[in-house]
Design goal:
This protein has nine helices and four strands. By secondary structure, the chain is mainly alpha-helical.
Length: 302
């Protein structure tokens, strides 16, 4: 959002200033607790997420801002229609790796953000401050879920989900047949098979299931999972269901809350997440209806 509203040089300068500010705050706080309290535990609390960040991103500072640009058109992989089975399978592998990478980054960043936003203030509270441990634990989990959902909506935006759906339609699937004496042909990796074809692969018979063509390898569990998740409207409905459940859970907690500071906390969380939820719901409901209409057209066309 900020990148589209300011020049590139200004945006990079802002990123640099925020990075220096964050790193300086961590080191200054660490020096204070080392000098005043001689507390190794507090220093460990501050630097613990750095190990997770290094495991996921390595030693690249620029990766810290990847989630800001993850839904920009420049960073989105697009599906290119092809009549070659090997090309389709290569696209499936590429998008599968991109999907896993984005999910791993969402998990990492949501954990780091919620850790510094909720867990660190509790650890650095003064000894004479008493707080409700149950409420603090609930608040930590709820903040992690909200941050995870917000980052999830950016990492798996409708454009990226549509690319996954298109390549899944070209991939197709296979159904294992019993018995094995049905007339068939051998499966070759360079061939595209029309729906209804019966092939033999690794001493098993398979029937092609698809609406366009079938390029997947029979019996390949990775291709089966990819096609099951992204063919049709399963993935958009899964995301909408997750966000709806999270909103309902937050509303239930709000109804059971009586303390004024807890009401402010839960109300703020709901207000910050409702816009994203409505926008995401609108986009993915449109995609789900479009995929359903697409399926009906292909079914009647064949």
């Amino acid at each position: 959002m900020l990148k589209s509203l300011m020049p590139s040089s200004t945006h990079r300068l802002l990123q640099f200033i925020l990075t220096i500010h964050m790193v300086s705050w961590i080191f200054v706080t660490s020096f204070y607790f080392w000098k005043e309290r001689k507390s190794f535990l507090h220093i460990l609390y501050l630097f613990m997420p750095i190990f997770l960040y290094t495991y996921v991103y390595g030693f690249s500072i620029q990766s810290l801002w990847e989630m800001e640009e993850v839904d920009s058109p420049e960073s989105l992989p697009y599906h290119i229609c092809s009549n070659e089975a090997t090309t389709i399978r290569d696209q499936v592998e590429s998008l599968r790796l991109e999907f896993n990478c984005r999910l791993r980054k969402v998990l990492c960043m949501s954990t780091i953000i919620s850790y510094y936003a909720t867990f660190i203030p509790m650890c650095f509270a003064q000894p004479y401050v008493h707080y409700d441990l149950y409420w603090v634990s609930q608040h930590l989990i709820l903040c992690w879920l909200i941050i995870f959902s917000l980052l999830l909506s950016r990492a798996f935006c409708p454009d990226f989900s549509d690319s996954l759906h298109k390549v899944a339609c070209h991939l197709g699937s296979w159904t294992r047949l019993r018995p094995n004496h049905i007339p068939s042909q051998l499966w070759y990796g360079d061939n595209l098979f029309p729906p209804g074809s019966i092939v033999k692969h690794q001493r098993e018979l398979y029937k092609a299931d698809g609406v366009l063509c079938v390029a997947s390898e029979p019996g390949n569990p990775t291709h089966q999972r990819f096609q099951m998740l992204f063919n049709g409207s399963s993935f958009p409905r899964l995301l909408i269901g997750f966000h709806t459940s999270l909103i309902l859970l937050t509303m239930l907690i709000l109804l059971r809350t009586v303390e004024w500071y807890q009401l402010i906390s839960i109300g703020t969380i709901i207000m910050t997440s409702f816009y994203t939820y409505i926008r995401l719901g609108r986009d993915f409901l449109t995609l789900a209806k479009m995929y359903e209409a697409e399926r009906i057209i292909w079914t009647h066309g064949t």
